[in-house]
Design brief:
The protein is of the alpha/beta class and 355 residues long. The chain is 52% helix and 11% strand. The chain folds into 3 domains: 103 residues, Alpha-Beta Complex (Conserved hypothetical protein from pyrococcus furiosus pfu- 392566-001, ParB domain), CATH 3.90.1530; 130 residues, no CATH class; 48 residues, no CATH class. The chain has 12 helices and 8 strands. It comes from Roseobacter cerasinus.
């Protein structure tokens, strides 16, 4: 008996398998979905691009702060008045054959090596390295009027660089190329010691700080030329023409007590570098002749070692050479050591009255 409800029909039989409605994406849906996917991809690409741009900007600022970014700077914006140059007789260098060769190279191939600039206290761009390149471009622009020579490719240093570092950077490339004479290197040390912005006032000590990378023998020659230039002043008219050994020998002769005033008078009267060097050689020859004719009742020079220190003793001079940085020792400590040294000398030898 079939059970029927009050409406007169029985329950419907459930289908054997449930049927699902087939839903297919229509053209509009497909277009919307594709647009959404494209928008998502574009958004991700933009986010990644922004990240890359931020990283590039950070790297650029770091490179700029470190002076690794090259700039094209108008020559008119560059000055050469703040830092003394490491070359003597700049006019001669500017008109030399080598300058014409550099100009020809720049004219044909352009400026290949950048110069280095820094800003002085007033914000003016000043030349640190590359005086020959700057001069060559200035001459080419003056001669041709070509705008291609009106600017210079340059690195601009960070403002935090110290004054002494600027001197070191200036001489560094020329020293490495061995393009500076001993007289020029000595002149830089003298000028740097006179610079109020540097705490070192002793030219001899300045040699060690400026030319720390050079062999100690070269630094010794530079110190000899520091003494030579200081002792003879402007009367030594062609210091670049003085050979290394000649200059060192004259300096040593002057240190040992030879009269500098007579030599300066003779140098003042010279009219060429050859005459000047002949006077210097004659000064040495006369000094040697006087030494040979003077009876010697004691050694003129004595050398010995005390620990790791080498001591050289002459008349009027006692020189101590060691690896210690004497310039870094406090002045009061040095004075105390010298006073003890002087006291010990006078106690042991009554004839010693001064150092």
């Amino acid at each position: 008996m079939t059970r029927k409800n009050k409406f007169g029909f029985g329950p419907l039989d459930a289908p054997a398998t449930p049927q699902t409605r087939e839903r297919s994406v229509g053209p509009m849906g497909a277009a919307v979905r594709d647009a959404a996917e494209s928008l998502q991809e574009a958004t991700e690409a933009k986010v990644e691009q922004r990240r890359q741009n931020a990283a590039d900007a950070k790297a650029y600022r770091a490179a700029q702060d470190e002076g690794r970014v090259l700039s094209n700077v108008p020559l008119a914006d560059v000055s050469t008045t703040d830092l003394p140059r490491d070359r003597l007789d700049l006019d001669a260098v500017a008109s030399a054959t080598e300058m014409e060769e550099l100009k020809a190279s720049i004219k044909e191939r352009g400026q290949k090596e950048p110069v280095e600039l820094y800003r002085d206290a007033a914000g003016q761009l000043q030349l640190k390295k590359g005086w020959r390149r700057y001069t060559a471009l200035s001459q080419l622009f003056a001669e041709t009027g070509d705008a291609a020579f009106a600017s210079i490719v340059a690195r601009i240093e960070d403002e935090g660089t110290g004054r002494l570092a600027q001197y070191i950077d200036m001489v560094e490339e020329n020293v490495v190329r061995e393009d500076l004479t001993f007289a020029e290197m000595a002149q830089v040390a003298i000028l740097a010691a006179q610079d109020d912005a540097i705490d070192e006032i002793d030219p001899d000590a300045m040699v060690a700080r400026l030319y720390a990378s050079l062999h100690k023998m070269k630094r010794s020659y530079i110190r000899n030329f520091v003494f030579l230039l200081t002792a003879l002043g402007d009367d030594l008219k062609w210091p670049k023409a003085v050979a290394r050994n000649l200059g060192a020998d004259v300096a040593r002769a002057l240190k040992s007590g030879e009269e500098a005033a007579v030599l300066r008078g003779k140098l003042r009267a010279t009219g060429s570098a050859e005459e000047q060097n002949a006077v210097l050689a004659g000064f040495l020859a006369k000094g040697s002749a006087r030494s040979a004719s003077t009876p010697k009742d004691r050694k003129e020079k004595r050398e010995f070692h005390v620990g790791d220190m080498k001591v050289t003793a002459r008349k009027g001079e006692c020189r101590i050479v060691a690896e210690d940085d004497f310039a870094g020792i406090p002045k009061a400590q040095l004075e105390k050591a010298v006073e003890a040294f002087q006291k010990a000398l006078r106690e042991g030898n009554p004839r010693v009255t001064s150092l």
